[in-house]
Structure formats: structure tokens, C-alpha cells
Amino acid sequence: MMLISEPNAVFSLTAGITGCSADKSIKTYGEAQNFFAAVDLKLDLSTIMYEVYRTINTESGSKPDLMWGLTVLYPITVNNEFNMTRGHFHQDDTKSEVYYGVEGEGLLLLMDKKGTTWAEKVFPGSVHLIDGQHGHRLVNTSGNQALKVIACWSKHAGYDYQYVEEHPFGFRIFAGIDGLDIRRNVVL
Hints:
CATH topology: Jelly Rolls
Radius of gyration: 17 Å
Shape: globular
Number of domains: 1
Structural class: mainly beta
CATH class: Mainly Beta
């Protein structure tokens, strides 16, 4: 008789990723306020800015090294600056990542180690091949809808958040009167 088992994780656009091989992290405004150009004293520190659901594969020597995730980036502005993820480079820059837009609209900010920054539009059906040598950050420009993006990456990629903190992305994205107000990032 053949064994038929339940999957390690289940994916849903409404519930995220659940199961024995899944975890969820939440980033509140209190944890994210330093991502933005200026602190918004009117925004409650407990406001959920984004959630990340992912499969986890912690087995040492395990053959499957791919991870699957969903980022849910809420439609919030901080002093008119669109909500964004923390952004990171990969510790192992030979490991790439793929993003797939499923709901909402936004931008994928990309940056090389020279500080050159550019963006790709994110929308339902968009596919983004992210070179392991490029920093990346999501920005929700929807205004009233969560930006939901699926990601697939190697568990060996690692996250280098410190580089982005020391060398910020070159542009910031604000809500403008007639669309996006894209401003050069002034690092003090």
C-alpha cells in the first residue's frame, strides 16, 4: 500500500501559508518607522505594516532548498510616503529570487552595490527575476488595497539588512497629487 500524506504547508491568498513547515512574521510601525523619511506621530506604533508568510526548511543537508513565501504589504502612508518592506540584499549574492504579483499594485525597488536604484511595476501577473547581487524592497502604491507578492528563493540566500541600513535605496516613493511623487533619497 502507498502512503498518502498531507502537505507540509498550504497556501492561500487570504490565510497566507499555514502548516507544520510554515511561519509568519509581522512588522509593526514601531519596528518599521526608521524605514521612512520622517516619523509620523499620528500613526499608532502597533499598526501592522506588513506580514510575511513562508515555508521553512531547517533540515540540515536537506535536498529541497527552495522557500516559498507571501508578503502582504498594507495600504498605509507615513507622512504621505507609501508603505514599504525593510529591503535587503542576499548574504550569498549567487542566490537569486523570483517575485510574482498577485494582488494590488506597487513597485519593486532594486539597487546595486554602487547605489544605482531603479524600479519595476508590480501588479497581478507580473514576474520579477531578482539577481542575487541586487538589493530589493517592495512599495505598495495601491492606495486602498494590500499589495500581495509571492516569492521563491533559496534557503541558503540569507538576508543582509545592515547593508541597506548603511546604504539606503536611492529614491523614496510618495503619494503625489496626480500619481507618484518620486524623490531622491537624501541621506543625512
